[in-house]
Amino acid sequence: MYDFFKNIAETNGWVFEYGRKDYQNLYNEDVSGGTIHLFVDPIVIDSSFSNTGNETKSYSGRFMMILSSDVDEMYDDKFNDYIKPLFNGALQTIKDTLVCDDYDINKFQTLEVINLLDFNLDGVLVNYSLSPNE
Of 30, 38, 26, nearest to 97 (Cα)? Predict the structure, then answer.
């Protein structure tokens, strides 16, 4: 899953950061310019085994897709300028790519976030659960 998120970020020209939330908050690169940032938390891998010993893995965790914003903007402006475009664009790209890569999306829960981390980033927090479609 790490490679999936990293590859989709690189393919689309997004910034990719992987790590715990406290490390992501230390990110000190320029966040301006309308570039999407994909911050991925450590991925949980669950294994189950059949009676014959075949392993099946599933993946869960959370990621954020966020854009730089101005802390003084009204919520409606933040929603229309940053959050709504992510729902209609980049977030849909991730869903479509997961389906094309043969993953079953068991959970894809989204939450709007504003003024997140030290950079006043706005966007979407996603809790997900996936399993390979075999």
Answer: 38
